[in-house]
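pipeline/complex-builder :: batch 7 item 3
reading input block
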Amino acid sequence: MQLLGQATDIAPYANWMPPMLSEHGGQIDNLISVLHIFMAILFVAWGAFLTYTVIRFRARAGHKADYHPVKGKASKYAEIGIGLFEVFLLLGLSMPVWAAYKNNPPKADDRVEVRAIGEQFQWNFHYPGPDGVFGRTNAKFIDAASNTVGLDPDDPAGKDDIQTIGEMHIPVGKPIYVRVSSKDVIHSFAIPTMRVKQDCIPGMEIPIWFTAKEDATTERVKREMIQEFPVADVDWYRLRHHVAVQDYQDESGQVILKEGEGIGLSREAGEKKLKTLRDVTDTIKMQPRNPLEIICAQLCGNSHFKMKAQVFTYDAAGYQEWMDNAVPKEVEIDFGGF
Amino acid sequence: MSDHSHDLPFWKKYIFSVDHKMIGIQYTVTALVFLAIGFGMMLVMRYQLAYPNQPIPVIGQFLGEPIVAAVENPDTGETGYVLTGDGYNSFGAMHGTIMVFLAIVPLAVGGFGNFVLPLQCGAPDMAFPRLNMASYWTYLPGGILMMFGFFVKGGAANSGWTSYPPLATIATTGQTIWLLGMVILITSSLLGSVNFIVTVVQLRAKGLSFFRLPFFAWAQLVTAFLLLLAFPPLEAAGVLQLMDRVAGTSFFDPGGLIVSGVEQNTAGGGSPLLWQHLFWFLAHPEVYVLILPGLGIISEVIANNTRKPLWGYKSLVYSAIFLGFMSFIVWAHHMFMTGMGTTLSTFFQATTMIISVPSVIILTCLIISLWGASIRFTVPMLFALAFLPMFGIGGLTGLPLGLTASDIHLHDTYYVIGHFHYVVAPGTIFAMFAGIYYWFPKATGRKMNEWLGRIHFAGSFVFINAVFMPFFFMGMASVLRRQFDQTETLHGAAVQGLSVMSTWGAFGLAAFQLPFVFNFFWSIFAGERVGANPWHATTLEWSAPSPPPHGNFLSEPVVACGPYEYSVPGEAEDYTMQSPPPATA
């Protein structure tokens, strides 16, 4: 299964890694692959040498240890070789990728900006809206239900700002510039499928940027991640974030699992559903409810493991549509009237 | 010297002892108890990770709030006890703290260092015996205080063994206990390290030049310097965090925090990152504190059981010194994801690559030492041989974490957990086992049972890999560390099976420690009696009787050769002792 051209093999967990959907991520995966090949060669070579030596020089009747050290330059050459390869890894692979990732932020007029604010235990997002300007924020305006970022109601620039909780909406193919911060403790803004990770330090706003691949729209990725699970071998844990892509009925025609539905939100319900499913089918075709997750990578309290958000990626038209619907309705936007 | 040792009352001989051997044994036994406690916590956590939110069998009911919460099974009506998120975090933080500060370091340095080092130097005791006693008697109360955290409101510290503020600053009382415990434990380490350095520098036997010291002594010396230089910043940082918690200061508090919707009324102006720099300035050298004594033990065991000199002894020594030095300038590679710019990250990833060079040299020397040997497969040697590839895996998997670009994907995932556990568990802990089997006869005059030892080794070797190998794959799938339930995320749920495997590996590992526990106690009383030098070893500790009396040596040792003169051509025996014991012994 291929998503885009050559590099994005989306077959779930090829090389054990989640699908890779960002433009810079390929280089990171590439480095990880090169490293593991290098590590495997070293380990196998060392291991083979060790095994051979241990067998050949085992204590036995008539065999004596040699007092004199073994002469030879092989180990020196091996050490120099490893050193040189590390220099190559450093200068050739790691530093350029990091520099490309960290230097040269996308230009202000060519990027989609969003603020991501972590708090125990949710992700809040703040968009500047159509005017492209973030409204002023202040802690005193924070309201857990309607104003999680603390937007100042008197600031005209903030009138068209969009706030979401637990959902980040972004277009594909355009640089996304996320200003990452935290309200309380240190969190870490991680999107595994984008190969993005940045700690959220309270008191600091740290920018990070990435571009989702041109056709990595949520809908597309979901379709590509459709998988057939053998019902006998899976449990609720494995399927809890998946939904069926077709109906499953028993002999009487009664629908046991509907298209778009998961097997249940609790383990008890899920295991019961699985039991009934086992009677009617050997496999079920499912896709992730949402393949793109933002997770918190820095311990932030007792519900740290639940601190996650969904990313929704759209093509240009889809993003515009989302934006049009998301802009606060009561706001009249007057672009030319000053 | 040795005459009055029998006159000492029980409490002076066994409890408030100033004899380095008794203190070493006290440290060893206490640390092994803590090792078992830390391991036990891990078993509970692993059960939760394999079977999230399911009642913990058997021991669940004894753990109490807030570690567990009672839940009723809707089908059967039975009450079960599941681990809570806070309980998991407490166990996580305390597992790390106990293993690093209460188990491995006290075992490696306090235990082996205390017992073996003065003997290997040919000294009658440590340079400052009372300081030595003070060190143990600071460590034990510190450890007990740490455990006391479980009994205060909110449970023990639950902000990770790294205790990053502001999370740690707003945490429950357990964190205050943790900080107090740390300050006491660090003090204990400092007392010990000063003693070690002075002993090696001042109390070496006649003829024992620095380059005739066994590598173990060198490893302990470098370790002592690391402890001495790296711990004070953490002690200071610990006091600062304590002040932030109890005295209203704001060293690590940037101000304006809104916790659970409530704005915190603090002065602010502090920096949460300052803590991380101070913490890792200790905690990275600490990694080498964990591994260097282990490498020292492995070197002794390898030299003894290959029956030939270590290959590249001087390279080993210089590498250990270089490693110690470099370990002070790599700390920020733990912080690549804090928003580090290119310049800083370039420096730290370069130093991180450089520090791998001496590690590679040490491992290479130890492996080449096997060439031309006559290898005896004693129990200590089995652990030492297994150590080599296991430490190799631990070291190699450091590469993708040390390079910033690959670290983006792997940072804070199980890959990190796998990496450092391979260094410390099948690495250092295997070395500790090797050391226990190797020096047990010196401490007790009896040998541990060989067959029980082999069973212990084989089972541990298989199952410890079953525990930790899955972590690398989970990390690649981006399962994050410190997650109470990895199935909460899509990618975590996809590799849940690996977590189950790891858990069963852990239970297998636990089962195979039973032969060791039995062997340890049984051999104290009923092990095969042995003489002063059962392994036919060369270094000075084997010139003293087993167990050595108060004052150690029957006559002052005079050293005539290097530490590893095995199979010297023309000698009658295949070992030439640094100082042969008097003929009567």
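note: The two ends of chain B are 17 Å apart (CA to CA).
queue -> next item
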